[in-house]
Design a protein that fits this description.
Layout: E1 7-12, E2 22-28, E3 36-40, E4 44-49, E5 58-66, E6 80-82, E7 92-96, E8 100-101, E9 107-112, E10 123-128, E11 136-138, E12 144-149, E13 158-165, E14 180-184, E15 192-196, E16 200-202, E17 207-212, E18 219-224, E19 232-235, E20 240-245, E21 254-260, E22 276-281, H1 283-311, H2 349-356, H3 379-388
Parallel strand pairs: 8-14, 16-22
Antiparallel strand pairs: 1-4, 2-3, 2-5, 5-6, 7-9, 9-12, 10-11, 10-13, 13-14, 15-17, 17-20, 18-19, 18-21, 21-22
Length: 399
Amino acid sequence: MAPGTSSTLWCSRPRLSSLKEVIFTLWKAGTREPLQQKPSADLWTDFSLLSVTPRDTGSYSCTYKDRTTSGKESVSSDALELVVPGSLPKPSLSALPGLVVEPGKHVTLQCRQPPRSALWRATFTLLKVGSPQPLQSQSPAGTSAYFPLLSVRAQDAGNYTCVYYRKMAPYQVSECSEVLEFRVTDELPKPSLSASPGQEVVSGTNVTLLCWGPSWIPRFVLYKEGVEEILHSMEVHEDRARFSLTHVTPEHSGNYTCSYQLGTNESLWKQPSDALELLVRDPSNNLIIILSCVSFLLLLLCLLLFAFLCHGSIPVGSLRGYSLQSCCSCFPWSTCLPHHADGPREENPYSEAAEDRPGQLFVAMAEEPQEVTYTQLNLRTLNKKKKGCQGDTHRTYVL
């Protein structure tokens, strides 16, 4: 019980028809005088302990006797151990072989005094959270006690603590040990592993590998594929372990797993997580990749521009009989000849010359409009020359 709280001890007697009223007496081991006495006609009575202190720690029992006669008292009841933690340093509690075992296995819980405690021949008591009475008590000659749990079952799982105290006056009691969470199971959940800020990083980045597992796991270990030894081992903090990799390099790349370790045996109850692949890139490699992509895009742009410029110059004369007037919609305006609606089309010397020597007539597209030279033909003059030179087949007209 915690110091300052109150407790009620109940004492009952067998049903006897000959006894009408009895006197119940409360005893404490180590004392000759009774602590409390109460007459009662009922089969039970209660004894109150108000605001208990470490001095109330000890073994209690009760008796009854007939009130009307001077008969002997009954045999004492079984002892009830009452423990009130005090100011002595708290002990440590550990489990052998580990905190998690299979059903049917044997487990030993060890309660040990701290080195600075000078209490000799102390009594050790094993407590279970939620149980109204201590489980076991021992008074060993040394500074530690061993409490065996044989053929454990699922109901043996729970939270355990222990105390040590002096059983005789003057009473001294320690504080309770840290709670030890004990598990009985044949299946353990698999832990999970994650990376922060991510699984792909550049050299020089600090990476944290988080291993998650059950809240009662005491210790985690980290492994890397291809490395036989444990990389890191860490105590659990808030149901997870943080493994830090500072200023990582490409050598840190690889597959990582984590598992939890129970007890002192490294091979006991290990459940590896799924593999996590860490990829560390060199910044120089990233720059080479970026420059290669830029160079490829520039080359592609140059090829497209060259193809566009080459498609812009077309030899018109190579198309025999092609009408220049009909091409004005598809060629630059500088390549088209002037067209007069009232001119005699059948007497067009340009057409005749083109028919006579099609290979010598080309219209070259100027790269810039300001470099084009225009010549206006006098159709009548050409017609006269045509009539006077019917036999001249070597004359050509070039614009």
